[in-house]
Amino acid sequence: MGAIKGFMEYGRETPSGRPVEERLKDQKECYTPFPEEKYKEQGARCMDCGVPFCQSEAGCPLGNLIPDWNDMVYRGRYREAVKLLQNTNNFPEFTGRVCPAPCEGACVLGISEPAVTICKIEEMIAEVGFEKGFIKPNRPESRTGKKIAVVGSGPAGMACADQLNSVGHEVTVFEKENRVGGLLMYGIPHFKLDKEVVKRRINVMEESGVIFKTGVNVGVNKSANELKIEFDSVVLCGGSQKPRDILVEGRELEGVHFAMDFLPQQNKRNEGDTIPDEVTITAKDKNVLIIGGGDTGSDCLGTSLRQGAKNVYQFELLPEPPLERNDNNPWPQWPKVFRVSSSHEEANEREGKDKITEYCVSTKKFSGQDGKVSKIHGVKIEFGYPDPKTGNSQMTEVPGSEFELDVDLVLLAMGFVHPIHEGMLVELGMDLDARGNVACDDTKMTSVDGVFVAGDMSRGQSLVVWAIAEGREAARSVDLHLMGETQLPHSQFLK
Predict the structure, then answer these.
(1) Does any domain span residue 272?
(2) Which residue among 393, 414, 435 closes a domain?
(3) Domain extent at residue 282
(4) Which of 64, 229, 342, 368 could form a cystine bridge with 373, CB 3.0-4.6 A?
(5) Do 85 and 127 fall into the same domain?
(6) CATH assignment at residue 69
(7) What pLDDT is recorded for position 13?
(8) Angstrom distance (rounded) from CA 52 to CA 66
């Protein structure tokens, strides 16, 4: 695929970011698109590698036909590229922007050379598809008479709804917020995913026949059991929304917040909403500490910088990742190596540091005055050798490493533990697994007949690309359940 010697003729390139000073003044996406010829060059680097691990389970959860559409881009055959991409991925414009690209980690070329620039090619194909009208509303020719409720309008819910609508079912998506998109709308910042991109897709889905109802919190202002009566099947796609907390002295102080109480506010401001003063959380002119070094922590970092934080710090409990794969992390596994996000680029440059994140830091307590946080008390830690039976390493404090840091705002970005149990899940009497996620069988059916589940609500905290795969698989199972047969494909690695 690609040019026969393309991987020898061209090196890996990715679009350059806008100047940090410029992009910290707005909420626009950080990167500028390549000229067309650059995308063709990157497509040319895709090798005829025999076994394309990029579309294996270690690579793309959706099983995207990556070598095929790379080749189409190289040849300038964009209509075919769009068709190939849409065969497996309902929303390439999202994954091309926010997926961490496990496909690139599994790229065969990546064994000896920098991997093919897959994600940016995917984004480009989607944008060309919209620009040239290859991606457009597609109403089914006939309706089955079956009505399906999808609870949650994040990537899993949207993918599920899109698939079910395509085979003629009447699909209604219920969203508790005032706008559709879930995590895509309110979790991911504008500078990573412009919300006009989300709205554009929602418009296509609406014109294709999908019904969206906002402001409906199933289990709170709408009975979950009513949905079972009103609809032939229900699919739960509410995500993993219970955040991991830190139970230390001073946690109750004003100024200590979960990341997902902070990030959605900025997205709402960008959409023109007014946040009441009494609940406003802002980093402006504050010393901000972010606890957690993952994607959510990175999003808090970039948002805090754009809001005009005085100083920004980031602590991570775990050790700093290596620069190269360890022996216990061989190709084609996702490479657990040190990476610098766009937000870290910005923070490093603004703060004049090589690395904004401090690793192996444990929070001991918070302290403050007049009920407001003013200090964090921390300590450096170290990890021993992994236990041969459990694989876990013993964590110990480094003697004499205790420290204090002045802070005005603490953002907890340590991930999520399971879906919200109160409300919908309790009302339905849903069985849960050992981790507190919704239990289901291989068909995504829950313990309640006719009720299915997809995405982080059953899988646990995961990637957008896995949420799409889960939504597609749940849609297939619902269609088979209702009709006795289905033309919808399996999600390759969820069969």
Answers:
(1) yes
(2) 414
(3) 245-414
(4) 368
(5) yes
(6) 1.10.1060.10
(7) 94
(8) 8
Q: How many CB atoms lie within 10 A of CB 320?
A: 13
pTM score > 0.85 for this model?
Answer: yes
Same domain, 269 and 390: yes
Do residues 273 and 390 both lie within one domain? yes
Same domain, 327 and 361: yes
Where does a domain end: 103, 131, 159? 131
Half-sphere exposure of 40 (CA within 13 A, CB side): 8
Separation in Å, CA 39 to CA 1, 45, 76, 425: 14, 10, 10, 46
CATH number, domain with residue 227 = 3.50.50.60
Model confidence pLDDT, tens digit, residues 134-192: 999 999 999 999 999 999 999 999 999 999 999 999 999 999 999 999 999 999 999 99
Q: What digits encode the pLDDT tens for the residues 43-64?
A: 999 988 889 999 988 899 999 9
Higher pLDDT, 387 or 105: 105
Say whether both 378 and 422 belong to one domain. no
The predicted pLDDT at position 1 comes to 60
Question: Mean per-residue pLDDT for 451-470?
Answer: 97
Contact 205, 166 (CB under 8 A): no
Do 85 and 160 reside in the same domain of the chain? no
Round the average pLDDT of the chain to a whole number and report it: 95
The answer to whether position 140 is within a domain reads: no
pLDDT value of residue 495? 57
Query: pLDDT, tens digit, for every residue of 366-380?
Result: 999 999 999 999 999
